[in-house]
């Protein structure tokens, strides 16, 4: 999700800037329905903050990269157990940030 709570499939960031990706999962009923993040095929555990509210069936997780480098480009996927997943393609640019419309 972006800062306006819209689902996105691509994000562009300037090298050295902070990258923040948010995953919102609704209708989560079981504690086993945990959210995981991957960069490509690599599971991630550092730089992730979790704000979980299982009582209301909503889990929000945020992945943060403080100083993005070119190697942080690629596909990031958040998954809720085996129930659902979403992927966003992150592009780290050497120049200005921009969006393709």
From TrEMBL:
SUPFAM superfamilies recorded: Immunoglobulin
InterPro entries: Ig-like_dom (IPR007110), Ig-like_dom_sf (IPR036179), Ig-like_fold (IPR013783), Ig_sub (IPR003599), Ig_sub2 (IPR003598), Zig-8 (IPR037448)
Superkingdom classification of source: Eukaryota
Boundaries of every Ig-like domain copy: 1-89
Any Pfam family: Ig_3
GO biological process: synapse organization
Gene3D superfamilies named in the record: Immunoglobulins
GO cellular component: neuron projection membrane
Record's protein name: Ig-like domain-containing protein
Taxonomic source organism: Zootermopsis nevadensis
Lineage, highest ranks first: Eukaryota, Metazoa, Ecdysozoa, Arthropoda, Hexapoda
């Amino acid at each position: 999700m972006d800062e306006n709570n819209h689902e996105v499939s691509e994000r562009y960031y300037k090298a050295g800037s902070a990258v923040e990706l948010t995953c919102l999962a609704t209708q989560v009923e079981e504690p086993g329905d945990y959210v995981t993040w991957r960069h490509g095929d690599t599971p991630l555990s550092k730089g992730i903050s979790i704000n979980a509210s299982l009582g209301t069936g909503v889990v929000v997780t945020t992945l943060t990269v403080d100083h993005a480098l070119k190697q942080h480009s690629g596909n990031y996927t958040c998954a809720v157990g085996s129930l659902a997943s979403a992927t966003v393609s992150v592009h780290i640019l050497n120049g200005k940030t921009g969006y393709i419309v």
